[in-house]
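User: Structure please.
Assistant: Input sequence and predicted structure:
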Amino acid sequence: MGYVQDDTKAFVNDAILRDKDVLVEQYLPQTFWIEGQVPEDFKENNLNIGIDIFKSFGYEDEEKFCTIDVPVKVKNVVLKPLNESKFFLDLWQHPSCLARMYKVELWSDIHFEIIDNYLKELASLGEKVATVIVSDYPWAGQSCYKVYKNPSNLYEYNMVSVSKGLDGKIKCNFESMDKYISIADKHKMAQEIDLFGLLGNWCAGEFGNPVEGYKDPIRVRYFDESDKVFKFINNTDDLKEYIGLVLNHLIECGLWDRVRIIADEPNNPEVVKECIEFINSTVGTHQVKYKSATHDQNFLDRAKDEIDDMSINLKLTIQNYKDIENLKKKINNNGGILTWFVCCFPEKPNSFISSPFVENRIIGWYTYYFGLDGFLRWDYNLWTEDPWKDSSYKFPIWKAGDMFFVYPGKDLKPVRSVRVENLRFGIQDFELFTMLEKEKGREYIEVELMQELLNKKENAEIKGFGDIELGYSLDNCGYDKVKKYVLELLERL
């Protein structure tokens, strides 16, 4: 395993390296990550992993120093692959960042090879959503233009190539967007296709809004064939034409039932409603489905009838825990999904490099405990200029690791982290609870198996912005103990 540094420069064993050899620095303990999969037809109750340790000095012959035996108990319970899991995992992808990190041309063949590698790994976690970006800078580069410490380019670019013909009509080349969706489909992680950049774009004031008379700062860059220069769409007629072309293309491709137009943390329900009406007008009688990552109680109360799929942050989850069952039922009955999320806050639980690893595991537990469909997080692969050397960015507002779950590997593939593997463990635990629920019921699992470790829901405290106290245990052995018991119960069924 490899060390990285958090915001305080403390060394953390987070990266799970694929290197066949590493330089072990003096006074830094070297840890190893050992994993494997028990064959489904394995008949024994136990297996043993033998780890031989060798040593040598100078030119002396190598000799075996010792063997470490690791006994593994095997239960006769089979977990389906996570891409068949009921857990709705929604980690946002940043494809433009991949091109920057590997210094390849945007949307080139090599870029899509890299995208393929990263989506394949993400799909192994049970990812259900393809992130499709259909305007420029929907997050305004996370305001990276204002950050001078560890300066990094965080802009995301439109997957659609846009031009305006000599006749003044907007034209679109959807090749890159279609290819991205095709790769996600290949890896079975496009159950949902989320369109970013059409609703709830960020930073209208300081970053600018090129479309006159439109309240959402949509930025669509195009090539003007008349003037032979690049421009941005600056009027609602061209914008309506562009949005219509994008949405109708997805309709024609037979993807419409999977498409959601997503807004990230909107806080003005009136503006959202106005923009929804505008977008709806671009596709005639076709029903457009909308999704929101919501952190504002006022927006949740006033706009939930406009939104088909919803993700609420942990604060809203706690505030509304008594109403979640009804909200989820309403959303599910309309074909939607209700998830929860954390971002740069709260301090805990979270997925920072400095976070206890078990806080990634309990994501699956709390998803089940609160009765939600899954979990959303804005990060999978957004990096500083060199995350191996310095991943601290916007500290203390952001913390190292807030932007990514995987590291960029030299072989064009992601390097997994202990954080993302603990997330995987938690999703597997969620699946085990779901399997047991059929026999024991939800109340038994929540009260008898979870409550002691996770604390009572009503005891959760919101102490301030970013300061939430759930009262969960940090003892990973406690979670392992419950998992072992669940496996024993399932084995008897």
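The chain has one domain: 82-440.
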